[in-house]
Give the backbone structure.
Amino acid sequence: MVGSAALHPPYETTKFKIMQVREILSEIRNREVIAKGSSVKIRKRLEKLYGHGNWRKMKGCAEVRLSDGSVRLAEIHWFEAHGIGKRNIKVKHYL
């Protein structure tokens, strides 16, 4: 193999449908701060949409109800700021 293909092993790609989180059913466990302050890459966009605040990118595990009605345990990521709350909740992967 020549070029970048020689550096990266072939990966299997699987198609899956990304479901939107409708509601969080359980308490969020194992909360961690991934980034805060100027390390949050979309901080300016968050400030424009929701207002100025101490924005943090967070992750944790919770049971969520998806848009198709199913309930799954998932690792979720979101942004939050004091006085503004959680925004842009996304499922990163199912546990």
